[in-house]
C-alpha cells in the first residue's frame, strides 16, 4: 500500500528546530498569559485537535505543525545550509555510499533514557517499515541497506547507491525526528496508544496533559533538554475552529500562526489592532495551483491548457484574495528553493491573447450560451478541491475568469479525506485546486512525483504518488519523462541534479498541466503585551515555540 495519504494529510513534512536544532487528564490551571508568576506561559490557537496523537508520519496536520517542538533530527536546514543538530559532525565516504554521524554526548530523551548510536539505529530500523519505500519522504529509507553502531556515539548509514539528498531527508523532523525506544512496541511497530499522550523526543518541550473535551493541550519544558533554554515555560494549544480573531482580541490566546489557521483578511484585521503584532516570513515555501487532467479531452489540447493559464490574473489573486500576502507564481516551484531556478516561465496574464488562442484553435461560442465548443465538445469542466475553506475564494476567482474566457467551471468542494481518495487514489478528476508539499519535502518530492506513472508495483521501484503532478511533463513523451526523472535515482552529483530539475521545471512550465497561482510565505500574529518577538524557522507554517521571545 502506498504511503500516499500519510504524506499529503501530513502535508507530510516537519521543520528543523532553531533553538537546538505524561498522561491525559482534566487539564491544569496555568498562570495567566503575561502574568508575574515565575512560570511563563502562553496560549496558541489551532483549528483542530491532535486526534491522531504524536506519532511521526500520522495523518494529522496538527501533529506535523508542532512536531519540531518535541523531537529533533540529526541535522537541520538553517540559513541556506545543513547544520548540526543531534549530530555534531558527519563524513561521507569517497564512493558516496556511507554517511557517518558523530552524535552529541550530552543528550537524553525527555523520558530520561539515553540518546546514543543504539537509539538512532533502533529508531531508523523501526521507522523504515512505517515510512515505506516510496519517494514521499525522499529515498533514504529505500536506499539504506544497513545502519551500524560504530561506537556509543557514532552511527553510519550504508547505502546501496549514491544519493544527493541524504542530508535533506535526515533534516525532516517529520518523520525523522528521533524518538526514544518507548515509541515502539517489542515487534518494532509504533506504539500508537502510548504516542497519543507522550512525546518521547529530545526537543525543548513535551506533552503534559489534555482536557476531557480534547480542546486544550498543555506542553511543558523538557527537563532534560540539552540546548538553549527557551523563554516559554509552558504553552497551551487551544482548539478554536471558528472564532480565533475574537479569541486573540479578547486575550484568550496570545499567538496564531499560518494561513491554514488564519485567513488573509483576518490577519490584516488583527495586525492592525492595537496590542497585536503581525509578521510575515520572507521564504516562498508552498505553491498553490490549479491542476488540469490532460488525459481527459479537451484538456489534452495544449492550446486549451495554455489559454486557461493565460486567462488567470495571478497578480490579482495575490493582491485581492490574499491581501498582498502572497507572491504571484511564474513557475511550478519557487526559484528560491534549491535547484529551482528555471529558465522557462509560465505564460503571462493575457485575456485577449487567451481568447484569440482558443478561437484560432477552433473553439467558438456558436450558440451564444457563453460556452465555447468544437466538434461537439464543449469547454465545460468540474473543479474538485478540499472543502476546508482554503481554496474557496481562489476557485470563485478562477470560475469568473474562465466564464470571461468562454469556459464553464462547475465546483465540487469535498471533504479532505474524500479528496484524497478521489484524486490521489482513484485519479478521478478534471481539474483540482490544491498545493505542493512544502519545504523540505519540496522541491525534491514535487519533482520526483513528475514521474509519469503511479504504478507502485513497477519493479524499478520508481513511481509517482501524486496523479496531478505525474501529468506535469505533458510536453514530453512518457519515455522521455521517465528517463529524466529516473535520473534523480542515479546520482549524487549536484550539477546533474540541477540539469534534471531545470529540464523538468521548464517542461512543466510549458505544459500548463500544473498551473501555479501563487507562492505562499507565511504570517503570524501575537499579543505584543506578552510576546516581544517571533522568528520563523525553515518551514514558516510550523510552530516553533522556542523561537518565541517574551517581554
Set out the fold topology.
Blueprint lengths: L3 H7 L30 E6 L14 H6 L8 E4 L2 E4 L2 E6 L5 E6 L13 H15 L8 H4 E8 L2 E6 L6 H5 L2 H4 L28 E6 L5 E6 L12 E6 L4 H7 L4 E3 L6 H8 L4 E5 L5 E7 L9 H9 L3 H8 L4 E3 L22 H10 L12 E2 L2 E2 L1 E7 L5 H14 L2 E7 L1 H10 L5 E5 L8 H5 L18 H4 L7 H9 L7 H18 L2 E7 L2 E5 L3 E4 L13 E3 L1
Parallel strand pairs: 1-10, 17-18, 17-19
Antiparallel strand pairs: 2-3, 4-5, 5-7, 6-7, 8-9, 9-10, 11-21, 12-21, 13-19, 13-20, 14-20, 15-16, 22-23
Helix pairs in contact: 1-13, 9-11
How would you characterize this protein structure?
The chain is of the alpha+beta class. It has helices at 4-10, 61-66, 117-131, 140-143, 166-170, 173-176, 244-250, 264-271, 302-310, 314-321, 351-360, 392-405, 416-425, 444-448, 467-470, 478-486, 494-511, and strands spanning 41-46, 75-78, 81-84, 87-92, 98-103, 144-151, 154-159, 205-210, 216-221, 234-239, 255-257, 276-280, 286-292, 326-328, 373-374, 377-378, 380-386, 408-414, 431-435, 514-520, 523-527, 531-534, 548-550. The strands form 7 sheets. A 6-stranded mixed beta sheet has the order 14-20-13-19-17-18. A 4-stranded mixed beta sheet has the order 1-10-9-8, with helices on one face. Strands 4-5-7-6 form a 4-stranded antiparallel beta sheet. Residues 1-20 and 22-36 have low confidence and may be disordered.
